[in-house]
Amino acid sequence: MANIKIFALGGLGEDGKNMYCVEVNKRIFIFDAGLKYPTQELYGVDAVLPDFTYLKQNQKNIEGLFLSHGHEDHIGAVGALLKQINIPVYGSNFTMALLKDNLSDQNLNLDTLKLNTVTKQDVLTFGQNEISFYQTTHSIPESFGIVLNTVDGAIVYSPDYTFDQNVDRAYKTSFERLARIAGKKVIALLTESLGIEHSSVSHSSKDLDYALNQAFFKAEKRVVVSTFSTDIFRIQKVIDIALKYQRNIAIIGRKAQRMVDIALNLGYLKIPEEKLITLKFIDDKNQNLLEDTLVLVTGDRHEPFHMLQRMVRKVDRLIHLNESDTVILMTPPIPGTEKIAARTLDTLYRNDIKPVKIDKKILPPAHASSEDVKLLINILNPQYIIPVVGEHRHLYALKKMALSVDYTDETVVMLDNGQVAEFNNGVLTNKNTTINSGDVLVDGILEGDLSEVVLKDREILSQDGLVMIIANIASKQKQILGEIDIVSRGFVYVKESEDLLAEIIERVEKIANDIFKQNYVDYRNFRDKIRDDISRFLYQKTNRRPIVIPVLIDTVKP
Fold this sequence. Notes:
α6 (about 205-220) crosses α7 (about 230-245), α9 (about 305-310) runs parallel beside α10 (about 340-350) and α14 (about 500-515) packs antiparallel against α15. β8 (about 125) and β9 (about 130-135) form a beta hairpin. The protein is α/β, with parallel strands linked by helices. The protein is globular, with a radius of gyration of 29 Å. It folds into three domains: about 5-200 and about 365-440, 4-Layer Sandwich (Metallo-beta-lactamase, Chain A), CATH 3.60.15; about 205-360, Rossmann fold, CATH 3.40.50; about 450-555, Ubiquitin-like (UB roll), CATH 3.10.20.580. The strands form five sheets. An eight-stranded mixed β-sheet has the order 7-6-5-3-2-1-19-20. Helices cover about 30% and strands about 25% of the residues. It contains 15 helices and 24 strands.
């Protein structure tokens, strides 16, 4: 009999930051370690990571980190985790290739890490427990579902999948592996919920093929297509159609180029070498008009939109868009990119460039629909269903669907990040305990977590600006040397607010006179008094709270 605990450090009630743990008799198996992209109010934050505190406290009990696929919401936090605890990592060949590129970019020494490539045929043994894999259909090759076999039965983790049959071999679901799992007792199925609001179980690529063929057939000159760099399947489809129309291929996007290089080297992207061209920077002699070329504009989240805007405004170094270009948008807005996507469309139309928008409904799906989830449930027949990978509305919708196919409130286990579902002898016995979980906010140039104070300062800077007060002080003579300088950024335009600035200087001089009456100049107290007084004064005058930074320079008077 095993004591099994299942909990998430991220991925429940949110889009991203996926990290799930299964603890079997105190041995910890980690499934994925992803990041979440920040929302707009997190000023200057580049990524949101899971809190690894529990894992650091229990690192001696960790058997390994097992990766489902190479998207950043599932592997983006691996580097941060390995910097704190060096544990074994397992993933498919393509996933590990992407991970190694990511880790190298973070200056991690790969030779010191325990990175292991596995296949869907591999079975890894950890005492009485086994880890095995089955291939799933997703937008990136070699995506895996992960199975943890215990003495009480199996725990199946299945994120980001569909049962689309119109895919190449590298994307096909390995039903033979699923059949083997189905022959055993499945205690719990952890299934994704992001696509649960869609009902279609199958997808035909005919509509997409027709739309792309029409666009390429009508295009008289250059064709520019925007795609997300992680959608290798869609990228290959566009390339195949472009080659049919005898076009060369150019790919733009630093991260995309690296991912494409990896996919090409491993054979997951197929582009004839003579058709792949490298663009040179635009200058007086070279405009990169390339009438017989497909230009793929790729990147993560906002990057394709940002690059298209630069191209329209003719500030990009490689492509300047014009009315004769055929622009195909295969980047439907995802959460957090709606505004920049709308601005990109406005910019294109304003410059008489009429894009071909590919409807999201005809793009190959990346997440399991309600019918896909039902099919997986019927194949595996799990005793319990745990909705994962999604915001709360998605988790709830999956629960509602499961209730419609004869599961109950007791057998559909809804959890929050940090909440522990405990099973004994394969039966849920408790879900009232919690462990430490939360968000770690990372600024790209920093290693640690950003504090709430820093974020509050950034919010104030974005809304109310900054006022810097610079004064040279002769501490021995106890006097201010020269004039007091006021620097304003994002608060007021200095030349139009001379009266306000004069009052600030007057108040600083008054504070200085009070400080100079003391036996010695306490600079910390001096700065605090200026900051507090000027902050109150500016709020009274303007109803705004800029950040006030006093800069006092101790100068030796000649």
